[in-house]
Write a structure and sequence with these properties.
Layout lengths: L2 H11 L2 H4 L6 H11 L3 E11 L5 E12 L3 E8 L3 E6 L2 E6 L4 E6 H5 L3 H4 L6 H4 E7 L2 E6 L6 E9 L2 E9 L4 E11 L17 E4 L4
Parallel strand pairs: 6-12
Antiparallel strand pairs: 1-2, 1-11, 2-3, 3-4, 4-5, 5-6, 7-8, 8-9, 9-10, 10-11
Organism: Abyssibacter profundi
Subcellular location: Periplasm
Keywords: Chaperone, Lipoprotein, Periplasm, Protein transport, Signal, Transport
């Protein structure tokens, strides 16, 4: 999973309420409130990677579950079976076809990306320019010159995130749309934990 998509997950599940508790532009207040008031989300997603001509390079779909703070489960069902799961501290990426699990700490996975700025270490206004593009649609632009993406757009409907767009420096765009979304649902114990299946290769950071 690319780092820009990890930004999406942290944006939805990270400590945004604390991050945005300080001074924010009026354009960001509605977005901040909607995200802070959403404790959990679950549903299905469709993800597309598009080139500069908006031609689809690859497409995938599956189900998702998010729980603040920092927990998420991304189950890819098409075209390949993969899982990306975080318990808020450890990130597991399981590729069934490769029979491989990659293990990283969430901090390491997001190190050097704008997602790290959303963990609560800095004020939003220090790192992003936030604009209301139109009602229910908000744009974020990183201020750092070394940022790995150029812009991100969050779309809301009735206070629920319905789509996200991330534009990278190469002219490619990742768009994720959410459907059949249930808000503030409860998850069974262990839903955001992962145990590697027997026989798979486990690679990653020692001690995780």
């Amino acid at each position: 999973m690319c780092r820009s998509v990890l930004l999406v997950l942290v944006l939805l599940t990270g400590g945004l309420s604390g991050l945005w508790a300080g001074s924010v532009h009026a354009a960001a207040e509605d977005l901040a409130d909607a995200l802070a008031n959403t404790r959990a989300l679950a549903g299905v997603f469709e993800q597309r990677l598009l080139d500069s001509d908006d031609t689809v390079i690859e497409a995938s779909r599956g189900s998702f579950a998010l729980q603040r703070p920092g927990k998420f489960r991304w189950d890819y069902e098409q075209p390949y079976v993969q899982q990306v799961i975080s318990d808020g501290q450890t990130l597991w990426h399981y590729d069934r076809d490769l029979a491989q699990v990659t293990v990283r700490s969430v901090g390491t996975a997001l190190s050097g990306t704008p997602a790290a700025l959303l963990s609560g270490a800095t004020e939003l206004d220090d790192s992003f320019v936030v604009r209301e593009l139109e009602p229910g649609r908000y744009g974020l632009e990183p201020k750092a010159a070394e940022a790995e993406f150029e812009s991100a757009t969050v779309e809301l409907e009735d206070g629920v995130v319905t789509a996200l767009d991330i534009q990278d420096a190469l002219g490619q765009r990742t768009r994720i749309e959410f459907f059949d979304v249930a808000r503030n649902v409860s998850f069974k114990a262990g839903w955001f934990e992962f145990e590697p299946p027997p026989g798979v290769e486990v690679v990653g950071e020692a001690g995780l």
